[in-house]
Amino acid sequence: MATLVQAVRMALHYGEEYLGVTDIFGEDVGPPLGGVFTATQGLKTAWNSPLDERGIIGTAMGIAYAGGRPVAEFQFCDYSFNTIDLLKVAGNQRWSGAGQWELPLVLMTPSGSGIRGSLYHSHSFESWASRLAGWKIVMPSNPLDAYGLMLSAIVDPNPVMVLLPKALLRVRGDKLIPGEPADEATLKQMIDAPVGDRTNWKPRWPDLKEYFVPLGKAALVREGDSATVISYGRTLPLCVQAADQLKQSEGIECDVLDLRSIFPYDWKAISASVSKTGRVLIVNEDTEVTNFGEHLLRRIIDQHFYDLKVRPRILLGKHVPGIGLNQNYERNSVPQLPHILSTLRELTTERA
Amino acid sequence: MATLVQAVRMALHYGEEYLGVTDIFGEDVGPPLGGVFTATQGLKTAWNSPLDERGIIGTAMGIAYAGGRPVAEFQFCDYSFNTIDLLKVAGNQRWSGAGQWELPLVLMTPSGSGIRGSLYHSHSFESWASRLAGWKIVMPSNPLDAYGLMLSAIVDPNPVMVLLPKALLRVRGDKLIPGEPADEATLKQMIDAPVGDRTNWKPRWPDLKEYFVPLGKAALVREGDSATVISYGRTLPLCVQAADQLKQSEGIECDVLDLRSIFPYDWKAISASVSKTGRVLIVNEDTEVTNFGEHLLRRIIDQHFYDLKVRPRILLGKHVPGIGLNQNYERNSVPQLPHILSTLRELTTERA
Amino acid sequence: MPIRGQASGNDGVALLDAPVLTSGSESLPADRCRQIHRLMVRARAMEERMIKMSKSGEGYFWIGGPGEEGFSVPLGLQVKKGQGPAYDFLHLHYRNSGTLLAMGMTMLDGIRQMAMRRTDPHSMGRNFPGHYCRREWNIVPVTSVIEIQYTMAPGTAIVQKRHGGDGITIVTGGDAGTAEGDFASCMIWSTRPGNELPVLMIVMNNGWGISTPACTQHAEKHIIDRGKPFGIPGEVVDGNDPIASWHAIHRGMTYCRQQRRPYMIEAMVSRLYGHSSSSGALRVKDEPDCIELFEQKLLAAGIMDEAEVHRIHAEARAEADEAAEQALGEPEPTAEDVERFTYAPSRVDAVYPEDYTGLPQ
Amino acid sequence: MPIRGQASGNDGVALLDAPVLTSGSESLPADRCRQIHRLMVRARAMEERMIKMSKSGEGYFWIGGPGEEGFSVPLGLQVKKGQGPAYDFLHLHYRNSGTLLAMGMTMLDGIRQMAMRRTDPHSMGRNFPGHYCRREWNIVPVTSVIEIQYTMAPGTAIVQKRHGGDGITIVTGGDAGTAEGDFASCMIWSTRPGNELPVLMIVMNNGWGISTPACTQHAEKHIIDRGKPFGIPGEVVDGNDPIASWHAIHRGMTYCRQQRRPYMIEAMVSRLYGHSSSSGALRVKDEPDCIELFEQKLLAAGIMDEAEVHRIHAEARAEADEAAEQALGEPEPTAEDVERFTYAPSRVDAVYPEDYTGLPQ
Ligand SMILES: Cc1ncc(C[n+]2csc(CCOP(=O)(O)OP(=O)(O)O)c2C)c(N)n1
Ligand SMILES: Cc1ncc(C[n+]2csc(CCOP(=O)(O)OP(=O)(O)O)c2C)c(N)n1
Ligand SMILES: [Mg+2]
Ligand SMILES: [Mg+2]
Predict the structure, then answer these.
(1) Considering CB atoms only, which of B130, B301, B321 is closest to A297?
(2) Domains, in order of start, for chain D
(3) What is this model's ipTM?
């Protein structure tokens, strides 16, 4: 099975071959490195940019205006905070020109904690991103979704941001990407650049197939009547683990929704599940003051207040200026499996 | 009575004279203009900067490091979006250096809609700002609070952002600022720069007094048992109007809380009122996806879910890429008095 | 409408016997001068009508380009106008009415934006005046955010260079705005070794950023000097002189079209109504007026007489009045328009297949 | 510890009879050279010990300055060290261990950060190694965010200029990072006419930004050429040569201290262990090593012999090992530390009078 980062790379290759991608660029995105996480190794349209995030997004906008289809990378979402004005403009170009322009660009960037990244490689970005009207924002939690969301991001004629959970980049899924060779080692040999000199290396791409995960479609990854768990990205597998544990130990079964799209989010799926269970847990690792999860909670309160059987729960990252390198900081800054498990247990067992 | 912008100017003067303010600067902040809204006319430490918001906040940080006490201005909050990285760093400097540094800086900037500002002079900033851990964020809704909050912002040894509601800058309060002459015309003559040539103009400052509005302290501007209305800035006077109308027409009385501090917010005041009324309306004009009001709602759900008698209400700006110049756009993008009034009526009359 | 490609005068050499107007060592054919003059006057008349609207309540905010016509009109006339990478891309600032009129915009379309009508083709009554947007002419939306156009310009130029042909990217902005990092970004991205880009970087230097004199904030003798370390050639030109401006633009465009590398022009211009309506939009008296200067030359050379000048002004004013009247009679945007044109239709979006329709339902 | 003010060698003129080491037309007294050499070796040993920690799991990420010691040590030795505007302010990047050791930091304190101990005086185990912060020495927190230090530097320099005396602001960064607008901001803010600032702008040019060669992204012949349009003098120096570096720094500092204006130095340096532990932190073979080069000179001049060189290296390694052992035995931060030191105590804050204590209660 491919890792998430290999899935992204294959999607980009598919994008170059079949979906009109013209430029994949950013800091260290081109040869020799092919991205600090290897997401862009061996891609024919990948190139290195100056160290200038404003130039990266501005140039991506220009390329899109002129008819190209760029995929730009910010090396880490942590380094996108000097570009919010340009991101806002990218989101409003169609609107401000009353529909004259499309801006088909993809911005991909690793987001979240979990790689011992200290202050500047542990930020989450989805709450900020969700405020960028005119954008669509996705965040896969497994390789197949990463592939399918990336393909959708590429063909969508609007700016789409692909947030890649840093902690899951090297994690493998349990489903093959259409066209992916069944054997991991074979895949690695085909598409991973060798260590050392790469000047003559060329990838051998598998015969990949089109596969879209529609924007705005959540995945119901576990089913049950006892509660609705809503998450995405890094915390999604933790929620699944918690749900599985609870099922095993207590026989309590929950819906677990992998949102996949932050905006537009799949309100239908959320609404259906909340109507069914009346119990809600929202989990993400972004900081907790003005967090996208709070928006979801607000929608639930707006439309399902009287369906709620007990107080809905929400687990978020602490409102602190940063995540410290020593793991005692991180462990106590963002939700961990034990928190999720105990909160879920509490939620499902509280007397209605 | 002073206008809000005159109150800010007087506070800055007081800050220069008695609280150690060393630099008041930004684009067009110094002579001859004294700020596009006149907030900095006649101030002895005011100076004009290059047109470079990153330079403005970076320089403010440097001045604060070196022992100065700067008040920096972003001409409009709409032009602060290329500086979020620096704002985040300002918020984490004490934390990252484990308490070695203080960063006593004030950043003031006009925020919100209501001045027919079109796409780039109608943004709200408090939801973005609230995500900046390490900062304190205030937003006055009347001149006296503006004076008292600005003085607190100046003496606080941490970065404090003062959001000034654009729509209320020229609005007068109903309370005198300590030391302010009772007569408006006198005040104007003393501290407003004349139209035309100002080269020889000098303000005559009234004998102002120290007056602090503590950070984190809301004001209960109307009292009643029927509901809790939480707002600040531009929408606060609209909420007061709505509450007054409802009282007059239906005899229904509500608590209206002027939050004044976005962070830290006055949880005690909110909590006490919600416990009493069990009915909540939150109003602000920022865009509605991942809005600070949703954070407040989340806290209320966290701690008062079982105290709520009916579904809490929230009125926010629409999630759109911008506010259009034609007033049909603005009127239909941010909460207006009729929405507030009808929502409040609904909230207070819904059967529990 | 005459655009680039009509040879006469483009290289400063007039045809034998055809009357020319000379400025320094450069000249333009008389017909070209008449055309430029008329466009300058029309641009001014349109802006002055808009200023009136800002004061009468027929509009709100005004910002625009009176004082820049001597440069912006020759710029518009030389644009290779069209859609897509074979043509020039324009990343403009908010003082380019002269350019738009020279490219063929009607006054009506300019004033529709000032009047915030639904018929405003640039923004449907959403944006400030002078914030043009014309996809058919490769004009990307002007934004109020100072200087960010310089960050986008390399992108269109990348596609143009790859596409082949002689399309170039033109970016304009003010002098104060060059203090934003985006100006430097444009130089860096346009000169990547082996990947140089056909970007014509124009700075309209009026010596002011709102109330702040350039000389108090900028140590550079000339802003274009900042291009030198990057190997970007450039020139300073008197933007009040349409003949000099024409040729500077022509040189810059030719260099970019042929060399596929960047070029810089710094045009020294006036700001004849102050910064905007926020600063009163009052006519300033102490800065040269490019139209007056040009008319003096045209009159002295006998290319026009006083009567013709008057007629042109009168016609332009009448055209502006008529455009205003027409625009003000047109419908306004409605509540239903608030969310319209947020998203382009998408076959892979389950929630917004056509456009934005409010929060996901 | 000898710092600026000890005259010998500062101006390149050695005292009669005192032994000197010469590089080109410049020289330094032998004692100074020994001091520099020892600090360079100690800096290298500390970094190499930290690299080992990053591989052994005693630490995680490593980034630092092997290859920059020839410049960073002479820099640290000439800093006017102290707290407040009378002294130099330092806005450093993440390759300045040599500077810190030269200023008197112990290896233990450097390694405490690598080991993420609560005792780490720079960040209490919060930040990456090399992210120094020392208020007592005017060292503001190093941030990972490339180039923003250039935006803050003018601020400290404003206060210094106003304060009087000869304190200056020193800012260092890499070559690739100059593509961010902040580099330009620093030049603009430091040269406002009449408000020029004593900022020593240093660029450590190792020719790389992670994997990207500078020559593929930068058209400038020298980065300091970008200062010329702003009237900022500067020089390119061989950062592998501590003697040349010493004098370049001395010239730059003297200019800033006396003229109260900015100066630029571009130091050409090596990157001897690649970018960081993320790229493997492997010793590269094809770049000059400033320590080896300096030792060759010291040996050739008879200022040291092989035995002494070996002893210095051995001592430095032993010191590093000891520091690591000590650091690793010290306590780690705890859950209670997560929110600590967010806010300074405030008499006007009703919620957080002392420090941050979680969401408002
Ligand atoms: C990023 C940004 N900051 C501030 C402003 C507010 N503002 C509007 S115009 C202006 C001055 C622009 O001066 P200059 O670049 O010289 O252009 P000019 O208006 O003189 O043509 C300022 C500060 C803005 N629009 N954008
Ligand atoms: C704003 C920002 N963007 C991207 C990064 C990721 N990054 C870390 S170091 C580096 C390269 C820096 O190159 P240079 O400025 O030459 O310094 P060097 O590491 O070579 O000393 C990059 C891209 C970052 N830290 N900050
Ligand atoms: Mg200007
Ligand atoms: Mg480098």
Answers:
(1) B301
(2) 3-272+285-332 (3.40.50.970)
(3) 0.97
